[in-house]
Structures are given as C-alpha cells and as structure tokens.
Specification:
It contains six helices and twelve strands. The protein has helices at about 5-10, 60-70, 130-135, 140-155, 180-195, 265-280; strands spanning about 15-20, 50, 75-80, 85-90, 95-100, 100-110, 120-130, 170, 200, 210-225, 225-235, 240-255. The chain has a six-stranded mixed beta sheet with strand order 1-12-11-10-8-9, with helices on one face. Strands 2, 3, 4, 5, 6 and 7 form a six-stranded mixed beta sheet that branches. It is elongated.
Length: about 290
C-alpha cells in the first residue's frame, strides 16, 4: 500500500496529561482499540495528487520526484492516493528540447482543486542532462522537482499569520526512538505547524525561557504482523520540569514506519498540535512582551 494511502487511512487517538501534584490520569488504560485500527489519520487532509508528466520520457518517475519534493516541504502529496479534498497537479513537457547532450526542459504545471477548477499554474524552465531526462529515476529527476516544488507549495499553503506571541519560543528535540526518518520528520512537521500558528521555533537549545518539546516513539509487537505505536510529545518548562504530555497510540502494520515518514509525520503532528499548544499556554512567560 502506498505510504500516503496509509497516512490518509489512519485514525488518530490523542491524550493530554498535565503534570501536577495529583496522580496522573491514564487516558488509554481502559480503551479497547479496534482489532485492525491503524494510527494517526487526518481523514480529509488537503494534499496533492501528482499525475505522470505528459510528454516526459520518465513521466511516472518525474511525478514521484515531485511528490517527494512536496512532502519535503510538508505538503501531503502522492502519485496514487487522494481524498475528496485533494488538489490535482498535472504537467506537460511538450515544449522540451534535447540537443548536444542536454535537455532544455520546459514544463507547464497546472494545479486544480477537487472540483477540477484551475487554482494556479507555472511554466518551469531548467536544463539537465539528456540522459537523466530520457531514462531518469526519481532520484536523478529530483533537482527538477525540488526547483519547482516551492512554487507549487505556495499555491496551497496559507499565508503565515501575524505572530501573536513574539515572546514565546519553542525548541523541538529529535524524536527519540523513531524508526526510519521519523527522528527528523516529526520535529520538522511540528515546527511547520507551530510556525503557522504564530509560535517561533528556535534551533538553539540554549534559548532563554524557551519551551522544550521532546517527542518519543515506542514500538512494540502487537502480533499478527502488527506493531503498537505510542508517540508522546513531552512539553517541558524552561527550568526542565515537565508541564504536560500529549500522547497518540494505535496499531500499524509491522515495519510500515521503517522508511520515509513523508506525509505521515504531518498527519501525526496535525493530530496533536491543538493539545500541544494547549499545554504551552499553561506555561507563563518570565518576561512577557507588553502590547
């Protein structure tokens, strides 16, 4: 099953725990999960379905390269899976010319919404090796896709909001215990969502008065080709004490998270973002900025 099909077909279970003097609740201790329940769905995530590029020799490979480039920019994208809100990206390379070992690539990219209405377009011009163009793999065609992906992403991403709390900064640690590229993908997805919410993410772990978020991933055998996945976002005050936790857990096919997380990391972060921000709001600023 394609990775995005898994992500778009997954179901999220999120629990919030605030630390304090009372015994901590266990929100999932008495919850019976469905026998085949996967993990972490944003059922109608607005993503992009990328079609094979017309008149490109490696049409499917170029589409795969574009889907990967969009995923790297935290845009759910795939060449097979879609839902009822997905955008559709098509490309036409009919104007491309090849000579003297080089391909002068010209691709008309068109983005349409789920109703089939064109919402944006761009003409890409780039020169690459004629060999790469003629028989390229997604890896060889990646430079083409990476050059264009920011323009495509801008057509679907919301404009960044005005920063609402410039005094609050957040440092996000690598995801401890995550298989595949989840160690980096989970923090990157959360950072994107926090930034869109007007919260500044700092790359400096020593930033004064910064909230620290430390995601952890724990996988255990669930039998019958399944793994139980527990993701916990630990939210720490600047003094190192834990202010709360947001947890997400369920069963997934064994090994399904061992490679690239892609849009799965965005689905996970999206499922937990509201509760994570809720915990952060309980942490007072030492030096709040006056309005």
């Amino acid at each position: 099953m394609p990775r995005s099909a898994r992500a778009l077909g997954l179901l999220a279970f999120a629990g919030l725990v605030l630390t304090g003097c009372q015994p901590l609740p266990h929100p999932f201790a008495d919850q019976q999960l469905p026998p085949d329940a996967p993990i972490l769905q944003v059922a109608d995530t607005v993503g992009i379905l990328v079609a094979p590029v017309a008149h490109a020799p490696a049409d499917a490979a170029l589409a795969e390269a574009m889907a990967t480039a969009l995923q790297d920019r935290e845009i759910p994208a795939d060449t097979h899976a879609a839902n009822r809100q997905s955008y559709h990206l098509t490309g036409d390379a009919a104007a491309t010319r090849v000579s003297a070992g080089a391909a002068m690539v010209e691709i008309q990219w068109t983005l349409a919404n789920a109703k089939g209405e064109t919402v944006g377009g761009d003409v890409q011009h780039m020169t690459i090796s004629a060999t790469d163009w003629a028989g390229g793999t997604p890896e060889l065609l990646a430079p083409l896709a990476k050059a264009e992906a920011p323009r495509i992403a801008a057509m679907v991403q919301e404009a960044p909001p005005v920063e609402r709390n410039p005094g609050r900064q957040v440092y996000i640690r690598a995801a401890e215990g995550a298989p595949g590229d989840g160690r980096a993908a989970l923090p990157r997805s959360l950072a994107f969502l926090l930034g869109r919410a007007g919260i500044k993410v700092t790359p400096d772990s020593q930033t004064a008065d910064a909230v620290v978020i430390g995601p952890t991933v724990n996988l255990t055998s669930a039998g019958a080709g399944k793994q139980h996945v527990l993701i916990v976002w630990h939210i720490y005050r600047a003094d190192g004490t834990e202010a709360g936790q947001v947890s997400q857990e369920n069963d997934v096919p064994a090994g399904s998270l061992d490679g690239s997380w892609g849009d799965i990391s965005m689905a996970v972060a999206t499922a937990g973002i509201d509760q994570i921000i809720g915990v952060m709001k309980t942490i007072p600023l030492k030096n709040p900025i006056s309005k």
